[in-house]
Amino acid sequence: MRYELYYWPGIQGRGEYIRLALEEAGADYVDVARGAHGMAAMMKMMEAETTPPFAPPFLKAGKLVLGQTANILFYLGSRHGLAPKTEAGRLWLHQLQLTVTDFVLEVHDTHHPLGPSLYYEDQKAAAKKRTDEFWSERVPKYLGYFERLLEDNGGKYVTGRRLTYIDLSMFQLVEGLRYAFPRRMKGFERKIPGLVDLRDRVAARPNIGAYLASDRRIAFNEDGIFRHYKALDA
């Protein structure tokens, strides 16, 4: 089966967590909106009369259409060996991915604390205040939590001895924070050596390495979730 992934064509965003899982699994998929007439096809899917997705990303698998990043990963994890076999294990992994979802929202709010309807330039002072709080309180809380899980499970992967989609998400978080806040992240990485090592091991995996070197990997930019503004990294 060939999957159809629907997401905005110019950014990594929330769709990147799904791309990483599909790439690691070696799955056959097409990034629909990046092709000819892809945006029109994506908008049409969102206007469907039966169970339409609210917003991208969403995944079409045969006749099944799934929305929400964590929900899509829950589905893919079981089908492609990126999740535990037990129900309890799969639900635990899903819980962790929902925590990542919460963190990603807070990342976005560093540059848009007053809401997405305003430009960053219209909320610079609020963004600086939010970013300072983000790095003093939220980053240590979230990444410290995942660092502890990694250490408690022997330091190889977040949930045990096998790679799951949460490890791919950890890779993306570290990469994104390095892009958006290179100075702040450089100082913080000594507090999360396990996650940094995990990031390196994920990047070295054959399928992920090939993906990162390909044009399928969209570069970070200032339209996505992880955005680099010099004033926020001071």
Structural overview:
The chain is α+β, with helices and mostly antiparallel strands. It has 2 domains: 3-79, Glutaredoxin (3-Layer(aba) Sandwich); 87-205 and 229-233, Up-down Bundle (Glutathione S-transferase Yfyf (Class Pi), Chain A, domain 2). It contains 9 helices and 4 strands, in the order βαβαββααααααα. It has helices at 15-25, 38-46, 69-79, 87-111, 124-152, 165-180, 182-188, 193-203, 206-212, and strands at residues 3-6, 29-31, 58-61, 64-67. Strands 2-1-3-4 form a 4-stranded mixed sheet, covered by helices on one side. A hairpin with a 2-residue loop joins strand 3 (58-61) and strand 4 (64-67). Helix 1 packs across helix 9 (206-212). The longest helix has 29 residues, at 124-152. It is globular and about 45 Å long.
Low-confidence stretches: none
- The averaged pLDDT comes out at 96
Number of DSSP helical runs: 9
Shape by Cα distribution: globular
DSSP helix fraction: 40-55%
Q: Based on DSSP secondary structure assignment, what is the total number of beta strands?
A: 4
Rg is 18 Å
State the main characteristics.
globular; 234 residues; four-stranded mixed sheet; 2 domains; alpha+beta; 54% helix; single chain; 9 helices; Glutathione S-transferase Yfyf (Class Pi), Chain A, domain 2; Glutaredoxin
